[in-house]
Amino acid sequence: MVYFGCRDSNFYALDAATGQKRWTFSNHGSWVISSPAILDGKVYFGTSDSGLFHVLDAKTGSPVFSLKFQGWPMFSSPAIAGSMLYIGSHMGKLIAIDLTTQKPAWTFETDASRQNGPALTKPDGTPNYEAAFGDNFYESMVIGVSSSAN
User: Fold this and answer.
1) What separation in angstroms does the CA of 133 have from each of 24, 72, 136, 143?
2) Cβ-contact 53, 97 below 8 angstroms
3) Rounded to 5°, angle at Cα 12 from 6 and 18
4) Per-residue model confidence (pLDDT) at position 150
């Protein structure tokens, strides 16, 4: 099997020999832009927009469990050692998840996250993108292309 996420908000399993789709898991609008980890018949991955971490049955795509991390995107690929899974979040944290209990075991926060995090985080703990991105990159690019075309 080949497993991958996509910006169409789905996670896919394909037959490696034929390329035939085996199953699809909908992330309900959230991208998966990192590589999954696979171990003991389960697939592990984080989502970008929703900050959800999913574990699926590798054969069927059925959910095993999910965890939500305050809506901060997860752009990193998970790594597994023993019964612990490690995944980074856009919040500047490395999260260790105990796969036996299916709960976070500990979190490491970088110095920069502690220093800059409060200004980039809303009171409810979600990202403050307005503060993080002062201008819209794509809007600026379109304006620049339009200006050079005139």
Assistant:
1) 33, 15, 7, 17
2) yes
3) 120
4) 55
Q: Looking at residue 113, what is its pLDDT? A: 80
* Mean pLDDT split into 10-residue runs, the chain, 150 residues: 94 98 94 93 90 94 90 86 93 92 94 81 77 65 61
Write the DSSP string, 105-129: EEEEE-HHHHHHGGGGB-TTSSB-H
| Contact of 27 with 13, CB cutoff 8 Å | no
